[in-house]
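Subject: for your reference before the review

Hello V.,

The reviewers asked for a structural picture of the protein, and I figured it would be easier to keep everything in one thread rather than splitting it across files. Below is the amino acid sequence we used in the manuscript, unchanged from the supplementary table.
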Amino acid sequence: MPTPVSSAVERAAAALARRRHARLLHPAGRTFSAEVMIWGTPGPPTGVPLLDLPSRCPATVRLSKGVPTPGSWPDVLGLGVRLHRDPQPPVDLLVSSSGAAPVLRNLPLPRRDFTGTYSSIMSFRAGRRRLFLAALADPDSPDLGRGLAALSAAAGTGEPRLVLAVASGVGPWRPFGQVCLDGRRDARADAALAFDPIGNLPPGLRAVGPVARLRDRTYSGSRRARGASAQSGGSTGFTV
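And here is what came back from the structure prediction:
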């Protein structure tokens, strides 16, 4: 149940998003159709079926700038992946530019290049396990470039890929799948897409703590200001 503080956060987020006439967070970005291939977590299972069991599904991917800064100036970059699993609800995985080392994976770090490490920043719970999610650069993939214009051009050639990975708070990243971009979607598709990084987590994974509650209310307020739902946008159609 929302508390007075969380309700106030949601109202403030909605007011700021209405004033901006766009998303409150990461307003400038590009959206792509994609395919996600999960080959499973190497080593001990995480207890999250989506990460542990092989599967394949269509996806919608959004790469974005956080502030946003002009052109190719450094910014906290974002990557949102929506997995379409009809007739099941979609799954949203959101990560931000960060460092790969354990001491840096929970810190958002500005950078120029869209190719690099993206981390969930906050950790999740799978049973008693504490897990971070990430998208890592694929060394054999075409570079995604700097700035949104370069990103759009790069994504049109060679089907760029990112590697999905999971780690504990101090352990190494364990790759469990990949995202393959296969075509840019238009501005209408980008405007319609609305992620829910807390409510649309995969079964078996939980977001806990005050940061998760703050993120939940902030995204909820931003969606409300745009007239969007937690399932808006993506390859299954528009519901704004």
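For the response letter, the relevant points are probably these. The first strand starts at residue 28 and ends at 38. Strands lie at 28-38, 55-65, 77-83, 91-97, 118-119, 124-126, 129-137, 161-167, 174-184.

Happy to draft the paragraph if you're swamped.

O.
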